[in-house]
Amino acid sequence: MARWSATLDKRIQTVKQAYANTKTAEELAETETLIEEIEALKKEKNAVILGHNYMTPDVFWGVSDFTGDSLELSRLAMESEADIILFNGVYFMAETAKILNPARKILIADPKAGCSLSESITPEDIRLLRERHPGAEVVSYINCSADIKAAVDVICTSANAVKVVNSLKGDTVIMVPDGYLARNVQKQTDKKIIIWEGKCMVHELYTPLDIDAARVQWPSAKVIAHPECHPNVTEKTDFTGSTSQMGKYIQDSKAEQVLLLTECSMGDNLRTEFPTVEFVSGCQTCPHMKKITLAKVRDSLKNETFEVHLSPEVIEKGRHSLERMLAIGR
Ligand code: 13P
Ligand code: SF4
Description:
Elements: E1 2-3, H1 8-18, H2 25-45, E2 47-52, H3 57-63, E3 66-68, H4 70-79, E4 84-88, H5 91-100, E5 105-107, H6 123-132, E6 137-141, H7 146-151, E7 154-156, H8 161-167, E8 172-176, H9 179-186, E9 192-195, H10 208-217, E10 222-225, H11 231-234, E11 239-240, H12 243-253, E12 257-261, H13 264-273, E13 278-279, H14 294-303, H15 312-328
Parallel strand pairs: 2-3, 2-4, 4-5, 6-7, 6-8, 8-9, 10-11, 10-12, 12-13
Antiparallel strand pairs: 1-3
Bound molecules: 1,3-dihydroxyacetonephosphate and iron/sulfur cluster.
């Protein structure tokens, strides 16, 4: 988790740098005004803004107080004492914040910011899986609804999935909803994993051929991917990890050229953070993450919409699954 406690001037300057080649002077002036308005609203309402690594640079650098991957932002949401937590990410992330800190007002700028993984499974599916595999504990990737969090035994994220699976007592584990993440974990554990076939609509688009072609064109590039990619892809990378772990790898490896197999804005944000690193080839866009825009963030804070509401039962059961993961750690 990174605290981005820059001055207003520094925020605006960083955003201008990020969009130097893509936005007009008029568009940048509009962006600057929005950032100023949001900063004022944050102070007025004692609000904190969390920004996932997939937010566009204006949201990420312009207004986020904390940035990070799902695990880091969950911890931060739990500890926050702000009156309002505005979660700039997708809906399941805002729900996670509500479960972990139910006393706060949790807002999301667009409640339609979903996730193909989250939408691939229902609590009834969990019930049937338990019936079919009696005794096996159910671990769900954090990319799932609050109802699923309440229905399973423990949560994991891309940063700690192997550790969570290995911490379970039984030899057989049910893992939902990401089939590719489960297969990537299966390669690193002796447990037998029962797999649910959900997919991330962004990461499923990468193929081993993307890496083979890049290795020919850019032989010295480090290839980095998210574990939501197919195992045929991850077996060819130099590093596979959570969104924040990918950033840390670039820093620690002192990579000069990088092929990043993940969401486009992550590359944009890393390009701003590491201006001397060359990011090669294309990327894929998550349409859900892209629903969060600076104008919607301003409206969300101004009108205190859209608030996340969950039943006390879902909060209590979901919290148990999340706290079990947080106790295991990274
Ligand atoms: P991270 O937990 O690695 O940030 O991933 C979240 C996500 O939605 C990736 O697609
Ligand atoms: Fe869901 Fe994939 Fe978008 Fe992440 S990138 S929010 S897993 S659809």
